Amino acid sequence: MTEITNEEFCPKTEDHIHCEHWWDGECCCACRASAMTNEQKLDQGMEVESGE
Length: 52
What we know:
Elements: H1 20-23, H2 38-43
């Protein structure tokens, strides 16, 4: 079973994971959670796109 971190957890979806838009930097459609900042993504070991 995959562990869902607090940053990814959505209380309103069946699988408890934010919608695909949240991963793209938008608010979650279900719970309106703000997307992770680049700093939070780096802390999670995720890649971030350079805006420069």
